[in-house]
Amino acid sequence: MLDIQPKVYEVFQLLGFSQFFNIRDNLNDSISYFNTDQTTMKPSVFPKVVACPICYKKLKAVKAGRFRCSECKSILAIDDSGQVLLG
């Protein structure tokens, strides 16, 4: 999927659809994703269990992105290295 609206993207994240769809910001990113040699990509740190920085509930992240804590409902951002940020 390409250039999805932020509110729609948040719903995709909350419902888990982002695990099934590969969403890119622009056409060039989409094309380069399909042209990337998959054997030279660095290994992923995902899936990863992280703790919510607010309530410390353990959460499983299968990829980087924005998520909502199931316990305190805080919005969390998890980057490609697995670091958890508010937001």
Describe the structure.
- The structure is a single chain.
- Helix content is about 20%, strand content about 20%.
- By secondary structure, the protein is α+β, with helices and mostly antiparallel strands.
- The longest helix is centred in the N-terminal third of the chain and has 10 residues, at about 5-15.
- It is globular.
Spell out the key features of this protein.
87 residues; alpha+beta; 3-stranded antiparallel sheet; 2 helices; 5 strands; globular
What is the secondary structure topology, with strand pairs?
Layout: H1 6-15, H2 27-35, E1 48-51, E2 58-61, E3 65-68, E4 75-78, E5 84-86
Antiparallel strand pairs: 1-2, 3-4, 4-5
- Structural class based on helices, strands and sheet pairing: alpha+beta
Biggest sheet: strands, sense, closure? 3 strands, antiparallel
Strand order of the largest sheet: 3-4-5
C-alpha termini separation: 23 Å
Counted by DSSP, the helix tally is: 2
Q: What is the percent of helical residues? A: 10-25%
Order of helices and strands: HHEEEEE
Total number of domains: 2
Strand content: 15-25%
Number of beta-strand segments: 5
**Uncertain residue ranges:** none
